[in-house]
Amino acid sequence: MNFDELLQVKVELKEKSYPIFIGSDFLMRIGELIEPYVRSRKLFIITDDLVSMLYLPMVEESLRKAQYDVYSLTVPQGESSKSLEQADELLENILKIGCDRQCAIISLGGGVVGDLAGFCASVLLRGVDFIQIPTTLLSQTDSSVGGKTAVNTTIGKNLIGTFHQPKAVFIDVHTLKTLDSQQVLAGFAEVAKYGLALNADFWNWLVDNGEQVIGLEETACISAVEQCCVIKSAVVAGDELEQTGLRSLLNYGHTIGHAIEAGAGMRGTILHGEAVAIGSVLATWLSAELNLCDQEIPVQITEQYKKWGLPVQYEYLKTPDLLSSMKKDKKVKGGHLNFVLLEKIGHSVLVEDIDPADVEKVLDEKGRKKHEFSYYG
Length: 377
Ligand SMILES: NC(=O)c1ccc[n+]([C@@H]2O[C@H](COP(=O)([O-])OP(=O)(O)OC[C@H]3O[C@@H](n4cnc5c(N)ncnc54)[C@H](O)[C@@H]3O)[C@@H](O)[C@H]2O)c1
What we know:
Elements: E1 7-11, E2 18-23, H1 30-34, E3 42-48, H2 51-54, H3 56-65, E4 69-75, H4 84-97, E5 104-109, H5 111-123, E6 129-134, H6 137-143, E7 168-172, H7 181-198, H8 200-214, H9 218-238, H10 254-264, H11 272-289, H12 296-308, H13 319-326, E8 337-344, E9 347-354, H14 356-367
Parallel strand pairs: 2-7, 3-4, 3-5, 5-6, 6-7
Antiparallel strand pairs: 1-2, 8-9
């Protein structure tokens, strides 16, 4: 693939604006592409131990061929690496190797290393350049764009973090081919979220093309990634620091989703995207419960999510535990539950002060999978 064949989406943030390059099978030429976006020959790659086996040699070779000094740091794969302890270890290692304010940190991997590496880049020497090379569907369509960095705490997910925009994002959809199908579906939940909560045209496109995206058909993936990046960058450009409420619309499904994730344990019994899928469906039921949207919509959405193979209910979790977890959500102000809810497909709004009894009803009736027991006594 030639560079001029790469699609480009611009995130417009005045002096912090940056390009997102989208294409397939171009990582072996990243060394040539990256040049306008870094100021130093010294680059630190942060990746995880699975992605490092798959793509690190290719990326290192390309960067070295382009005369960069490359230092790679690998963390264990999985959500538990998104911790202050892990960030501390990485930062100490980078400082021991030696760096200055011109150096850049590159994240190579999914949302976990993206959030972690971005956090390190934002605090190292009060901020160094950051480049994202996302390799999961979730990170290519969501977490690599918009500059949110984070680590987790025992109190909840993503509660420590910064805003630190990357200098450029390089999305090679060819890397999705090695992703297992559960991870693809989990990423697709965030893709569906853009259509459901923000853009009816994209929702309609997904109804027609979603299966091809899930099947990793190249053209469909490039198109889905591009549309998600266009939608997300417009939202980020309108509300970079999540101050006007616009950016919070990207969190559709996340209030319940984060509670499900916390309940299931942060160590991975449920993937972030799977929890977001269930949270999105339940937020839609809650919207209908509050008469914000047509009663038919949650039925239609549940059917479509099932057709895609996305989860729509959870097992074993208890409503009081989920509710108490939701009260720790970042959108909670003054103890009131705030939710992003749906008015119609493609249009969501932030609604403040939701009565916990309504949430409880939806969780009890629609959230938990009911098992049918048969007794042959
Ligand atoms: N910053 C944001 O705006 C934002 C937005 C959404 C989600 N997130 C965060 O993103 C994280 C989830 O990201 P994720 O779903 O990418 O998880 P992840 O980074 O844990 O990646 C999932 C798994 O896929 C593996 N992997 C990565 N790329 C691969 C490839 N090409 N082939 C094979 N395996 C590959 C990883 O090693 C890992 O085991 C969560 O921590 C979430 O909070 C952040």
